[in-house]
């Protein structure tokens, strides 16, 4: 049996012509393949250095000094710990022996947020506790719950005016403050109650779901991001976000995942030095990690491979990218002190000079299209119908 070259599957057709790409059937969306931006840490073996790495001892020392300045003092940590211990004791009492209190029933209490993760910043002495209720979180029930916890906390502290705790009701629950420390009680409910929530009587459903997500985030962080370098980098990134308005859209959860990715996502799976990881964060953001079409970072606590940056609007994604690009240019020309310790005047909004190099702020690449009026939308629909006929 004789075989002819090129006559098998995928071979040339008659006349030597190869089949071209098949047209996409009507109504079928093309396959979407997100791309990861260029990351030197992942492909460094393909780009070997031609000269030794520069000495960044001064940059590393500046990062560690800034982290030390941002770390809460022993007094601040003790104040938060004492208040958390007292509030948890009150909540445990309501779980075990609620007595005549019947406004709500507590399923469990979980620590979340920066206090639980060990990434608190000095001056922000706040600990977050998520209280999961068995019952529905009505506004009236939450108010009675807040008053009960406040009364029991005052009773446990005694009559000393120096230890008097204050109560503040919020849309997420309530806050208890004492001696410069604050405990935020974030109220939510069990999963089976989510579909039965009534916006007229219960807390906002999005807020309740965000509190449940905070529990998942805390659990994931405890299992996967316990490395000390990750906590240092998170603290530095949160400080950076606080001082540069262009990074404000980044949520604490986005910063947690970005720091974890920058430290551990490399071929060796070993923690990178803090100076390399800090620069890598800016490089990834500047390269478009959080832009449309990017593979981004998949949220490990959500289903359907949700990319974490999709919580931002397109304007916010563009703003984060251009801000990171400007900061990276400043950092590349030796301006790390200005990035770490101040932003006056704003180097992301005004032209600055670094070692005879002029760094000008970038302009927005995305402009939100103007909203169409109802008459214009009807004209577009009529035009499409005319084209179809």
Automatic annotation (TrEMBL):
Residues 9-18 have a biased composition (Gly residues). GO terms for molecular function: DNA binding; double-stranded RNA binding. Residues 364-375 have a biased composition (Basic and acidic residues). Its main location: nucleus. GO terms for biological process: positive regulation of DNA-templated transcription. It is found in: Nucleus. Residues 376-389 have a biased composition (Acidic residues). PANTHER family: INTERLEUKIN ENHANCER-BINDING FACTOR (PTHR46447), INTERLEUKIN ENHANCER-BINDING FACTOR 2 (PTHR46447:SF1). This is Interleukin enhancer binding factor. It comes from Frankliniella cephalica.
């Amino acid at each position: 049996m004789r075989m002819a070259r090129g006559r098998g599957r995928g071979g040339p057709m008659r006349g030597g012509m190869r089949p071209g790409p098949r047209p996409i059937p009507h109504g079928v969306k093309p396959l979407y393949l997100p791309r990861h931006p260029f990351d030197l840490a992942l492909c460094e073996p393909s780009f070997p250095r031609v000269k030794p790495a520069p000495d960044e001892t001064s940059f590393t020392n500046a990062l560690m000094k800034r982290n030390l300045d941002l770390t809460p003092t022993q007094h601040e940590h003790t104040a938060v710990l004492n208040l958390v211990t007292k509030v948890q004791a009150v909540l445990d009492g309501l779980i075990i022996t609620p007595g005549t209190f019947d406004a709500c029933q507590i399923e469990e209490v979980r620590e979340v947020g920066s206090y639980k993760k060990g990434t608190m910043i000095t001056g922000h002495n706040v600990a977050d506790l998520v209280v999961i209720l068995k019952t529905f979180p009505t506004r009236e029930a939450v108010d009675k719950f807040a008053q009960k916890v406040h009364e029991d906390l005052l009773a446990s502290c005694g009559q000393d005016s120096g230890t008097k705790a204050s109560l503040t009701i919020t849309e997420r629950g309530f806050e208890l403050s004492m001696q410069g420390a604050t405990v935020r009680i974030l109220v939510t409910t069990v999963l089976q109650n989510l579909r039965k929530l009534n916006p007229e009587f219960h807390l906002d459903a999005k807020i309740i779901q965000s509190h449940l997500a905070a529990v998942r985030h805390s659990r994931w962080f405890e299992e996967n991001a316990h490395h000390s370098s990750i906590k240092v980098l998170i603290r530095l990134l949160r400080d950076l976000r606080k001082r540069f308005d262009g990074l404000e859209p980044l949520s604490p959860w986005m910063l947690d995942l970005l720091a974890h990715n920058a430290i551990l996502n490399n071929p060796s799976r070993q923690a990178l030095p803090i100076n390399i990881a800090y620069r890598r964060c800016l490089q990834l953001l500047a390269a478009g990690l959080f832009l449309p079409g990017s593979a981004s970072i998949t949220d490990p606590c959500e289903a359907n491979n949700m990319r974490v940056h999709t919580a931002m609007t397109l304007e916010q994604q563009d703003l984060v990218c251009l801000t990171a690009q400007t900061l990276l240019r400043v950092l590349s020309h030796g301006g790390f002190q200005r990035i770490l310790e101040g932003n006056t005047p704003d180097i992301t909004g005004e032209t600055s000079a670094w070692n005879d190099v002029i760094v000008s702020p970038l302009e927005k690449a995305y402009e939100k299209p103007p909203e169409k009026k109802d008459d214009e939308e009807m004209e577009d629909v009529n035009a499409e119908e005319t084209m179809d006929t």
